[in-house]
């Protein structure tokens, strides 16, 4: 408790101040807080019920009543660790795994008529076998610093934060202007650093498609992912089948893709009410393993279509 009392705690003959210390709490300030030409008193006090939390008590001279404050010894709770499930390929034997997967019970898959059921059966067989060669395990995620943030960018961030602190304290238009300028500078330098970092990773891993796509996804905003989902919904079934045929797909493969895409319906459910089925004329089943491949086939020839300009493609965006 911080109070400006009307009794001098330094006066041991003052009954009120002594009673306060005896029956209430421990006084943390032990030096005068109000010094005048005629008196020296301690009337600005800090009473603490738990002195173990007090690291230091200080007095800051500033006016007729000096400022009193405490430095507390508080412990911040550590955040709980985050764990993810991954596979351990420490003892993985690729040759043995390929041999077992080729000798697997594929006849089980042929029992089912529906494509989704066949795919589910294949996943179960594949995952069960993979578990024996590369078992799953929990891994603790450790925090990582942003590799794109250089010492120069950190210095800019520090200056930006100083301007922001000054602007919020003074509300000076010049301070706000300085903060906005450094904010734009930090944003610009970060974009350049991210661009250079991504280019370096892709250039150094030309044959590692996993690394390339991981790098690309790390720089795609979430709203772009939602935009990509809309692009998946707009794929024409007829155009996709024509493109598969142009790529040399066999007759049996064409029949399979036609049955996979054709006669799919969707309904809308609100509480207990379900709408009439609506046949889908476009889109690929979201969440399926074929979704990204079919989308890639659909847009693969897009850069070669324009005749009077150049194209630059990046994921689902094309610039003319």
UniProtKB/TrEMBL annotation:
Residues 137-320 form the Reverse transcriptase domain. Keywords: Nucleotidyltransferase, RNA-directed DNA polymerase, Transferase. InterPro entries: RT_dom. Pfam families: RVT_1. It comes from Stylophora pistillata. This is Putative RNA-directed DNA polymerase from transposon BS. GO terms for molecular function: RNA-directed DNA polymerase activity. Transmembrane segments: none annotated. The keyword Nucleotidyltransferase applies.
């Amino acid at each position: 408790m911080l109070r400006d009392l009307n009794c001098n705690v330094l006066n041991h003959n003052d009954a009120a101040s002594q009673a306060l210390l005896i029956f209430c709490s421990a006084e943390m300030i032990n030096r005068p807080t109000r010094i005048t030409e005629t008196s020296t008193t301690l009337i600005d006090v800090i009473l603490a019920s738990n002195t173990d939390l007090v690291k230091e008590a200080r007095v800051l001279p500033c006016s007729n009543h000096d400022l009193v404050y405490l430095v507390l010894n508080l412990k911040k709770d550590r955040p709980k660790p985050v764990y993810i499930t991954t596979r351990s390929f420490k003892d993985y034997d690729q040759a043995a795994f390929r041999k077992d997967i080729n000798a697997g019970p594929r006849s089980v898959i042929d029992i089912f008529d529906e494509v989704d059921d066949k795919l589910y059966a294949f996943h179960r067989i594949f995952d069960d076998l993979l578990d024996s060669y590369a078992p799953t395990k929990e891994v603790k995620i450790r925090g990582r610093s942003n590799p794109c943030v250089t010492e120069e960018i950190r210095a800019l961030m520090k200056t930006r934060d100083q301007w922001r602190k000054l602007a919020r304290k003074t509300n000076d238009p010049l301070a706000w202007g300085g903060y906005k300028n450094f904010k734009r500078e930090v944003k610009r330098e970060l974009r350049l650093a991210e661009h250079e970092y991504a280019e370096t990773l892709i250039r150094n891993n030309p044959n590692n498609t996993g690394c390339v796509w991981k790098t690309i996804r790390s720089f795609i905003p979430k709203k772009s992912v939602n935009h990509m989902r809309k692009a998946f919904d707009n794929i024409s079934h007829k155009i996709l089948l024509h493109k598969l045929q142009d790529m040399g797909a066999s007759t049996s493969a064409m029949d399979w893709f036609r049955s996979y895409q054709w006669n799919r319906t969707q309904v809308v459910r609100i509480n207990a009410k379900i709408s009439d089925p609506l046949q889908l004329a476009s889109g690929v089943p979201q969440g399926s393993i074929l979704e990204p491949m079919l989308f890639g086939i659909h847009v693969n020839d897009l850069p070669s279509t324009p005749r009077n300009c150049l194209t630059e493609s990046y994921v689902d965006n094309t610039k003319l």
